[in-house]
Specification:
alpha/beta, 10-stranded mixed sheet, two-stranded antiparallel sheet, 12 helices, elongated, disordered N terminus
Amino acid sequence: MTSLPIVQSEAASAGRRPAMPPRHLADLDVSAREEALVALGEPKFRARQLSTHYFGRLVRDPDAMTDLPAASRAKIAGDLLPRLLTPVREMACDDGATRKALWRLHDGSLVESVLMGYPDRVTVCISSQAGCGMACPFCATGQAGLTRNLSTAEIVDQAVYLAGVAASGAVAGSPPRLSHVVFMGMGEPLANYNRVLAAVRRLTSPAPEGLGLSQRHITISTVGLVPAMRKLADEDLQVTLALSLHAPDDDLRDELVPVNQRWKVAEVLDAAWHYADRTGRRVSVEYAMIKDVNDQPWRADLLGRLLAGRLAHVNLIPLNPTPGSRWDASAKPVEREFVRRLRAAGVSTTVRDTRGREIDGACGQLAAAEVTTT
């Protein structure tokens, strides 16, 4: 069996073990929060106060939590509310409806997350890893290599911050409440399985335990880590599984999605159908349209045969430009013919609305690069 070509960052290849951040409120469930406060010499009810501020009111600054005793605030903040994300840069496009945030983590790692406002909803795309080890050649994140997994709180804090942006009314023409979260930012979510699942629980638990989002409004993307997909099916969750397929045949998918060298198309789709059967949730099949690479009519027909009659929806993604890429997006007539053939096979298909391309915030563009000027 061919080994999976995981790309390591410079720090990892130099043998330095990436350091995880300090403990944060969002890492803990309710009982653990209470235990932590008692250990600090505080009453249990302080856990609810802190949780109400953070998850209910979207307050991340301890100094703004004025109902906490001034004498205890610094101690509580230091132990349960350390700063996890330091803003480096925020960019906006689409008249402010799309906003990308670049964060520096406690160890200097960089990650990005994106807020997208629509007339009926606000969605945030969050990262689960600093970098990515899956090495997909058309994805800027994949080419950067993997630095480390994010902690549960580092994942959740992205959503809480951007929920606060939405609540401030900064996204004109959109509701003031975050409603959807997609794990489609930097990293392979199922390669950080335990922390991503804990983050999902925080995002979907009712306030003040969590952010109170609907499980059906959470999407977890994967390139096809089959054992983790099958494990997710048994978690009694109603989240959407998004499978980044990008090719219906093993020869091409081995190149586009190197994890296919370990788990082939048939195995990956079988795991996806297992998830659909166990949850009753439709699987979203993601397919980047790459000119003269995976957009041939015969590949549309093959994909249609593989998905026909299944609980699945194809989300075609016009390839977004990334630095140094040798590939380009399919021509619109080719894209339309691909859609026509899939629909003729009875497969529900849409073309993704490309948002954030101007700020390198679209699918496959997140690279967490700092801009330097001279």
